[in-house]
Amino acid sequence: MAFIDLTSLGKSFGPTPVVRDFDLALHQGEFVSLLGPSGCGKTTVLRMVAGFETPDSGDIRIEGQSLLRQRASQRQIGMVFQSYALFPNMTVADNVAFGLRVAKLAPAQIDKRVDEMLDMVGLAAMKGRYPYQLSGGQQQRVALARAIAPRPRVLLLDEPLSALDAKIRVALRTEIRTIQRQLGITTLFVTHDQEEALSMSDRIVIMNAGRAEQIGTPEEIYNRPTTRFVAGFIGTLNVIEGQLGTEGGTVLTCAGGRLALPGTFGASPGETLSVAVRPQSLRPAPIDGDGLRGTVRHVEFLGAFTRLHVSCGPNTLLVDCFARDLAANLSVGSQIALTVPPDEVLRLSA
Amino acid sequence: MSSLLPHRLERSLSLWLGVLPFFVFALVFLVLPTLHVVIGAFTRPDGSLTLANLSDLMSGTILSALWLSLRISLWTACLGTIGGLLVAGAVIRGGLPPALRDAVMTFSGVASNFAGVPLAFAFIATLGRLGLVTVLARDWFGINLYATGFNLTSFSGLTMAYLYFQIPLMVLIITPAIDGLRGEWRETAESLGASGVQYWRMVALPVLWPSLLGAFALLFANAFGAVATAMALTGSALSILPIILFAQIRGDVLQDPHLGYAIAFAMIALTGGANVIYIWLRLRAERWQK
Amino acid sequence: MNLKRIGSWAIFILAVIYFLLPLVGTLEFSLRARRGVYSLDAYRNVLDDPQFQQTLAYSVILSIATVILGVLIVAPTAFWVRLKMPRLRPVVEFITLLPLVIPPIIIVFGYIRLFNTSSILPLTGSARGTDFLLAAGYATLSLPYMYRAVDTGLRAIEVQTLTEAAQSLGAGWATVLARVILPNIAVAILSGAFLTFAIVIGEYVIAALLNRPAFGPYMVWMGSNRAYEPAALAVIAFGMTWASMGVIQLLARRTRFTKG
Q: Between chains, do A72 and B194 touch, taking CB under 8 Å as contact?
């Protein structure tokens, strides 16, 4: 049995469904990200777990017990908001102590726990300051300390890094993950930043239009996207559409030529397919050989590699190659051929 | 002329020329008249300095008028603060239809400027001896309002009338502060286990506190300076401090112009002090809301 | 949650009763002039009263003069401060807020003593002079509203950029003010003007103490001499205030449309 079970959750605001048929199981101590564009329903899922929204259908269980009849204040769930939401009238220490005071812990115990938490986020020296005297990164650390001080069963993080500067964002990523591991607290993290999700999570849920498109480890999501949406959302992928044929092995006939595919590719001849190819999987090849033919439209020098924009029929393909792989006379307007190692072609379901 | 002046001086002169009319106007029609009154409060007719005018304020009629004014202003500020907070809270955070909010804000904008003669007439027409409510209470419920000790030209009547502009003013002042209470605070408090009451006691009220006190100070000043409503409502039955000053300006009833200055100075000191408190508290509140 | 909504409705309904009753009461009272039936007699008496016509006309003309004086003093200053002297802003703002702190009765008290017949500037010596003093007093009262309205209007249009753009196209100061700035803040100025009108039209204390035949003192005089006519006057005064506020709302909506 999983620690947290979300089963067929559904929620509509007025006539528009924002979360549809959403299933997710989290193990104890796991760090799971909900990743998707804005409006995909990820925050709504989080808010339903927290108890700020009531699902129209489905159930939320922790250790087998349904949460739906409990109010937010009874659920023992810690939450961190994008906007920090520190209480402006209280010092850092008072903010962290809030949940402990509400739970009526003994004053000595409260002091001890507050010190412990502030030590953990490295803000012991800021104890007596007010939120408006802190930087954004410091405020978010306090918010984190406040959320975990009462030892919640689950930690919910709603885009906690989005309001911060790039540098602090990266530093805080590591810090959050370290603290999460140290406490072993089951965490649900909402973000629209794929780098954040890939670098922090045990597992990622890619959400689109209220549904989970794909659930998997960061490696799975990155290397084997299963749908067109995931392929488009994670990294820069070229999506190519074509028809499956079998002359001389499995091949995909598409605009600009043909692509060799591994094995039978799990499809039957004649079928129309979408496949994804990473820019670094496309390699320039001799113009008279096999592969896709196109015209170079634009050459971008990006330091470690060069990115070509190649028009191939109606598509524009992005090709990343190292300088040594490029023909010296390549320039805008040149004809070029491209090949892909068959096992680097990813099949997409829709 | 311009060729004789150094270029920079000429430039800064022409800069100041742009704001000169405003400063001259403000000096002649706002600052000097006020200063004249303030200085008058500290001088004798022959021009020598004295504190006697101010100490004369502590005599029978003036002291009781000051006391009455203070009571009316404090009382209406208090009720206005509470009433306005309740109305604003109900409209903004009470789950009422959003259209009501616009209606209430527009009405408040108008009603907060109703202080004056027509307001007094409206209350006479409503709660006077022949007023609508008085008559209806008698005819429908057999209640004689005036037998219960109520009197429109008394303290309670004046308080009723003042609230008609005090409550809307409060609604206008406190609305931004209530809007500033962020939903996340409530949600955070809840997820940390706090009940609704605990949230209000530990977060919302402490955050609103400077705004509430500041609004109270402003309402106090607003009531303290009002004259027309009281005069039109009570004639001179209720001698609040500004009415005494009015009579003094008109006919020198105190037979000492410098006593009039002293009354004026007392009024400036009180309304000015209240406003300073208001501004200071508002700055404090804004610091938090950042 | 539900309890909260019931409470909110209760508060709202109580407020509606408190705020509507005096309006209804005044209207009803104003119709009671003829015994036993509702009639418009009180209104007829008021409207036919030459005193009413004279004092109202006087107050309308005076409030127009006040608005012109106020605009002339506030608009160029607000523009100039925004454009060239931003460091003066807090000072100007402070001065414009003073009339909210100093009660009008004190300002007029100062006027009477400062501009009396034996002073350097004996404005109270003649009727015209006193009229001017009254307009100046009202313009002073309207400073907070006028300045805030104009300043908000200026903030919305990025004066600096517009002025520089016009100047780079060859416009002189007069052209910049008349053809670029004024048309863009006209709505803001009009809002300030109508608010000023609403405040000034029934003002009592200053007019009474300066002894001018204005609408406010006339209302008070009626109040102590007639029974039903004051209610009719109150209805008329409320009507004027509401009309002014209505115009301001309309103007505000129009700017919203033009901003797209």
A: no
